[in-house]
Amino acid sequence: MKVLSIFGTRPEAVKMAPVVKALCRETAIQSVVCVTGQHRLMLKQVLDLFEIKADYSLDVMQPNQTLNDLGARLIALLDPVLDTVKPDRILVHGDTTTAMMAALTAFHRHIPVAHVEAGLRTGDLTQPWPEEMNRRYVDVVSDLLFAPTMQAKTNLAAEHLAGRAIVTGNTVIDALRLTTSLLALDEQLRQRLDTHFPYLMPGRKTLLVTGHRRENFGAGFAEICDALAKLSRRSDIQIVYPLHLNPNVQVPVLAALSRLPNIHLIEPLDYLLFVRLMQRSHVILTDSGGVQEEAPSLGKPVLVMRNVTERPEAVTAGTVQLVGTDSARIVAAVARLYDDDAAWEQATRRVNPYGDGRASERIVDVLCGRSIKEFGAEHFKPAEATHLAAKILQ
Ligand code: UD1
Ligand code: UDP
């Protein structure tokens, strides 16, 4: 069976890397990889780290690309690849424009689509935007839905899609485990990685920040920058923010924060360095989807700069808290975790609601027609299925 994996952004690459590795190990499958290059540099960082060679590399990215221009170019470039490869099925991930356009192009050619990380929902098409629509679209056209959690499968059941859904765990935990086991085994590697952060001072605790969501552009980022400026005045804090390359992030953040002491605005980090920096952080402040899933596994408290999340499991477990983008609210939530040791301890409990490191193996087993034991069924409490998404408590 010929399986064509199509992905193009940093988070898709992190989460598809262990799947591609598992596909390559399976003799019954011929694995072909097409990267769209929706992210040119941030994608390359991940491919290099996991030593993945793309069979097709489309280089679709344009500076400050619009969604429609990106979408149109993706269809035009992906269609000839499908025509040449003639895969038995394609595999796409998550909720990006790459995933949606690849699914649409395959659907038009009657090629079956399998969706990795299916069933995440906030129930609100405006947040995350446009991702909530993208993931719904991909779920509708896919005949195999690899749901990361029982909650995600329950969301699919509400849309009458449960018959195509299998709970595998999230492949991000596979990627994270591969990375943390490398780090755990190799003291020299940890020391070498730490030389990338010479500015980290032992007397201050690190607040790691990431932020890039389209719905936060403009007013949201102004509030976030205001909060970071206020927090940087604390004597016990140092802020590290690897800046996303989107100019809508770079320009306002650099203008507001580049001259402030205790704030280190740095280039996007390759995955190994980023995991190391997560390990060394006291608190993580983010609007990222993937970081919300990784940090609880590392026992790091996460404050999420969104009003609603499609990943409610760690909110329920108490390691993730939604804080929105209001400056005062962000400052208060960070201060609480810095000032109240009991609150910080409570939020550092290691929880793995998102996976057990075997999601890729389950996905390949299903593709090969082997039966699997779904992830997490034994721990799932039906009462939790009643809420679709976690929302900020005002
Ligand atoms: C995309 C995804 C989002 C995901 C995010 C992860 C969509 C609609 N959005 O949003 O779901 O959370 O990636 O980061 O698919 N750029 C570079 N080099 C890079 C990457 C980006 O220069 O390696 C710049 C370019 O100017 C590019 C811009 O960032 O045009 C925006 O990239 P795009 O993929 O359109 O949007 P993201 O905000 O990254
Ligand atoms: N990440 C990384 N380097 C960074 C910031 C994030 O490797 O400088 C990783 C992070 O660990 C996670 C993924 O990128 O696995 C998340 O990507 P992003 O936040 O861009 O997208 P999202 O998850 O929000 O779609």
Task: Write a structural description.
Mean pLDDT is 95; it is low at 382-387. This protein has helices at 10-25, 41-50, 67-85, 97-108, 131-141, 150-158, 171-185, 187-194, 219-231, 247-257, 271-279, 289-298, 313-317, 327-339, 341-347, 359-367, and strands spanning 2-7, 30-35, 56-57, 89-93, 113-116, 144-147, 165-167, 205-210, 237-242, 263-266, 283-286, 302-304, 308-309, 320-322, 390-391. By secondary structure, it is an alpha/beta fold. A 7-stranded parallel sheet has the order 3-2-1-4-5-6-7, with helices on both faces. The protein has a 6-stranded parallel sheet with strand order 10-9-8-11-12-14, with helices on both faces. Helix 1 (10-25) packs across helix 7 (171-185), helix 1 (10-25) crosses helix 16 and helix 4 packs parallel to helix 5 (131-141). It is built from 16 helices and 15 strands. It has 2 domains: 2-170 and 355-393, Rossmann fold, CATH 3.40.50.2000; 199-347, 3-Layer(aba) Sandwich (Rossmann fold), CATH 3.40.50.2000. Residues 10-11, 14, 172, 210, 212, 242, 268-269, 271, 274, 288-291, 294 line the site of uridine-5'-diphosphate. The site of uridine-5'-diphosphate has 16 residues, from helix 1, helix 11 and helix 12.
Number of helices: 16
The figure for the number of domains is 2
CATH hierarchy class name of the largest domain: Alpha Beta
How confident overall, as mean pLDDT?
95
Helix content: 40-55%
The end-to-end distance, rounded to whole angstroms, is 51 Å
Shape by Cα distribution: globular
The fold-level CATH name of the largest domain is: Rossmann fold
Structural class, judged by helices and strands? Answer: alpha/beta
Q: Name the bound molecules.
A: uridine-diphosphate-N-acetylglucosamine, uridine-5'-diphosphate
What is the name of the CATH architecture of the largest domain? Answer: 3-Layer(aba) Sandwich
Uncertain spans: 382-387
